[in-house]
Amino acid sequence: MTVEPTPASAKLQRIKPLTSRVGILGVGHAAYWPQFPGLLDQLFEKMTIFEQKVLNTGVEVINFGMSDSARKAYELRDEILAAGLDLLFVDMVTYATSSTIACIFQSVRIPIVLVALQPQQAMDYENATTHIQLLNDDICALPEFASVAARLGRPVPPMIIGTLHDDPEADALIRDYCQIANVLRSLKTARIGQMGHVLEAMLDMHTDSTLLTATFGCHLVQVEVDDIFRHYQAAGREQIDAWKAEILDFFDTPEPKVDPLTRKLTEEDLEQAARAGVALNEFIKEKQLDGLAYYYEAEPGSPMRTLVTNLIVGNSMLTGRGFPMCGEMDLKTCIAMLIMDRLEMGGSFAEFHPVDFREGFVLVGHDGPHHIKIAEGKPILRSLKKYHGKPGSGASVEFQLKAGPITMLGLTQKADGKFKFVIAEGESREGPIPATGNTNTRGFFEPDVRTFLKRWFSEGPTHHFALGLGHRAETIRTIGDFLGIESVIINTGL
């Protein structure tokens, strides 16, 4: 499920376009070509159709042609290694011996996906020939390839099995793997800013920057609040007014309800949010960042405190443009948010709030910033007289997620130091939420809210997680498999 933007959020363009480099390698059996004239040309036609399906997802494609012998496999291996790929599709256009792939399995360390899409849903058995069978023999070598991968000590590649035409399930898997390639490219090229410190020693959120690089490939950039403050001080009137207009275009600013901490957005809070937004925008361009995890308090009453406590609105707008920003300096959840964003699910900063035992749901959300592309309708800004549990005051974002399927991704760390994905699927349903200037949604989970929460908590997750639209647990687990990360999908059965 790709996020469908609201009229306001549709104006939010990605800071960087989604991109990745995907290879296609056909495999076949050289002995067939002199035996069955015309077969090779027909197999290349199949590859052309598959290549177009991949191109339609928006990724860059490199077609390596056909590996049909061990000698050819060794020649192509070097080309594949030099291509800088994020993912390789092996197009099983007919039977191929495992010698056509073994050296590639052994040497290539990027994810490989085996694709077996036969042109016919079923052969016309009364008129079938050996030539026609070979043209539809896409699955024949799959067990041989799987066995050889395992014997070489490599992961058995995932497989797409189906038909080349009119197969929505196969087409959806092709899109999934291309989105996964986008995730992997983003992770290994990302520059994630780390600024300040974890909020009041939340011990579950501490992590090792080098471990993040070792696992995901991203680089952690150590940045200072002063780097933003320079741009905050230098913001011009024209820039600030443009941001104010953009903020008012994206957000509603209703009258307060019952919470005495809330009030209608004030001109002062709007001014500070806009000035901070200008500063953030210039700062991430200067540092060439792709995400930021931050927390800083500064001296009470200082201009620096005014800045650091008014990043929420600019943070939300940047997150909606594909730049995940994570408060409380939660680096792990920043990575989880980036993964969800690159899967075009949204990816909001979230935690669990009170349970509704009457209707059987739990409020899922967080104070502060959010991925506004997943909001139901126009998100709201409220001025808060104080931020609960944190210093400062100012504008805060409030909305409910779009109704429908949701997925949660928690990135936690185990006693052995390794990362772990904790994943769950549920449903967001319409209904009232507290008008507190905090985002919340009504999260329903099977088999019931108590059992689900116990199962989630028992996996030792970080208390924050990324929240997105759609049911994509298996896709995220595949990303974990490719990265060598243990993944747990919470059981929603009885």
Automatic annotation (TrEMBL):
Signal peptide segment: none
Species of the source: Flavilitoribacter nigricans (strain ATCC 23147 / DSM 23189 / NBRC 102662 / NCIMB 1420 / SS-2) (Lewinella nigricans)
Name of protein: Arabinose isomerase
Domain L-fucose isomerase C-terminal: start-end pairs: 387-487
Keyword DNA-binding (UniProt): no
A molecular function GO annotation: L-arabinose isomerase activity
InterPro entries assigned: Fuc/Ara_isomerase_C, Fuc_isomerase_C, Fucose_isomerase_N/cen_sf, Lara_isomerase
A cellular component term, taken from the record's GO annotations: cytosol
Record keywords, A-Z: Arabinose catabolism, Carbohydrate metabolism, Isomerase, Manganese, Metal-binding
Gene Ontology biological process terms from the UniProt entry: fucose metabolic process; L-arabinose catabolic process to D-xylulose 5-phosphate
